[in-house]
Amino acid sequence: MRYSRMLIPTLREDPGEAEIVSHCLMLRSGLIRKLAAGVYNFLPLGWRVMKKIEQIVREEMELAGAQEVFLPVLCPSELWHESARWDAYGKELMRITDRHGRDFCLGPTHEEVITDLVRREVRSYRQLPINLYQIQTKFRDEIRPRFGLMRGREFMMKDGYSFDRHEAGAQRAYSMMYKAYNRIFARCGLDFRAVEADSGPIGGSFSHEFMVLAESGEDSIASCTECDYASNLEKAECVGPRMNELPEGPCMKDMAEVETPGRKSVEDVCEFLGCRPEQLVKTMIFIQEGKPLAVLVRGDHEVNEIKLKNLLGGVSEVILADESTIEYATGGPSGFSGPVGLKGLPILADLSLKGMVNFVVGANEADKHLLNVNLDRDFKVDRYADLRYITDKDKCPRCSGILNFHRGIEVGHVFKLGTKYSKSMKAVFLDEDGREQYMIMGCYGIGIGRTMAAAIEQNHDEDGIIWPLPIAPFQVHILPVNMDNEDVSGAGEEIYQDLQKEGIEVLLDDRDESPGIKFKDADLIGIPLRVTVGIKSLREGMVEMKWRDSKDVVREGLPHIAAKVRNMIEDKKRTADSKLESIL
RNA sequence: CGGGGCGUAGCGCAGCCUGGUAGCGCAUCGGUUUUGGGAACCGAGGGUCGGAGGUUCAAAUCCUCUCGCCCCGACCA
């Protein structure tokens, strides 16, 4: 491709709308342009990258035995009523009405559509297992689209669904996808982790998220330095105190009330009373279905509302109570709530409380706290559970090893769905005995655009993008420095032709621009291998080559350039392949 | 949905407080000179100042409403 003929509108300055580096570089290098909030045009260069990623996904899906289909964007509401998600999905679901007044939505995901397809066409256990996927535009009316392609309202996604006749098969399908995902993201040149995750409203029992490690990530993950445990912070398990950490004997002191004027926060109370946050118990009042409940966590811990919601059944919303509810439920203002004397509402406590004696709580009265409060003696806990976020003081729940914390970008998610959709939508088959059985499903998503953004987050420098070879829009960028010199432009043209014959994707910067502009643009758009043709070297019959991620310049005689370039690229590919083999 | 902010040339911004000829840099077009890291000079084009209403002799500027966008939070395969 000739640069002069291609639409690559690079920007010299940082666009005002971009907050993170990948968004900024995607705009500056002319990959995308915004059409509306969370809605983007893909320009030629950006679209080439998208297709590269899609192709890797296709190859690995086919290798794992999945078949590509293409489902409609426009989905009738009936199917969504069947799964009860028409009401449950909320405002994120883009809804449309046609001229006849029939309701539709723009698919944010396709469990309903695929389940409908499969229940119509699959009758027998002989037809199972089956695994179908598609790559298609999805719609979610995000409250706040942000970070460019990272969180859009319209975005490209690979979504796949497996149907099995029994649990073992479903487990096998899940493992196949888990492995395929590892290969996909490794091939895209990403540093990532597969972490245990909350399955959210999609439902199902078990899930892993694939997280690309990046500071700008919207999620936090914890991973063990000693075993292979890794988890989304939302899900990361916190274990209670071990037997040897439990308090011993009758060392309980007498409970006492103290004045704590205006001290509401854990920090203020601790400073005032001269104690540490871990000696305090926070009492948080939540509301579920209009009813209040109390949740106790240690002063240095935070309540994990997702764990709380899952514990309470995981369906209806659990929200933090407002001031009037707190006063109604506890008899005191917020900031002074405590479990002692609480009546008429369930008291849930985090496991860590089991290790505490003589702790501080609110007195359910303004400006008063209680000292030396003890479990069972002073109040009763209705239920102990893991209700908090993990902290850096916690140990690995599997092996007690030290935990590391990272930010991550979720680029893929695999779920075991079980029979959630097959039951609600009656997707059944006949087994060997002629009995009707529900299909066991799994679902598997990859954000294609998000993967592209994540790749840039991880592969850039102050000058621009550094594309990993497998997803680069072109492999080679030919940069003739002086186009008005016929030797230079002629050599550039010759190399361009030769490389194309080799089947290499090559961009020839045939613009009559100053060298500075051409070099800056080349760095910005980040094509992995640059071939520079300039008068100085050319007088000696030489041409220069440089990887975008390196400072080293390789010189080669003009006649051998095509072969040399091919070898360099083949080498790079072989290195990547062997790395892939060693990982998996 | 709550809080904050921004809409002025293709892009980045100034002007607004204190009303009176709409500006700067980059980009674009023509020309001359340049050419190994975003060149120099000369010339040119490009704006219903997001939209509507109001106040005023006069509104980019003040007031009201509205739309769009950005950030923080809540939300979230």
How would you briefly describe this protein structure?
Helix content is 28%, strand content 28%. It is an alpha+beta fold. The longest helix is centred in the C-terminal third of the chain and has 23 residues, at 561-583.
What do these coordinates show?
Strands 3, 7, 8, 9, 10, 11, 12, 21 and 24 form a 9-stranded mixed β-sheet that branches. This protein has a 5-stranded mixed β-sheet with strand order 16-14-15-17-20. It has a 5-stranded mixed β-sheet with strand order 28-27-29-30-31, with helices on both faces. The protein has 584 residues and is of the alpha+beta class. The longest helix is centred in the C-terminal third of the chain and has 23 residues, at 561-583. The mean pLDDT is 90. It has 3 domains: 3-237 and 404-457, 2-Layer Sandwich (BirA Bifunctional Protein, domain 2); 243-385, Alpha-Beta Complex (YbaK protein); 474-583, Anticodon-binding domain (Rossmann fold, 3-Layer(aba) Sandwich), CATH 3.40.50. Strand 18 (359-362) and strand 19 (368-373) form a beta hairpin. Helix 1 (21-28) packs across helix 11 (448-458), helix 2 (44-63) runs antiparallel to helix 6 and helix 2 (44-63) crosses helix 11. It binds one RNA strand of 77 nucleotides through strand 21, strand 24, helix 13 and helix 14.
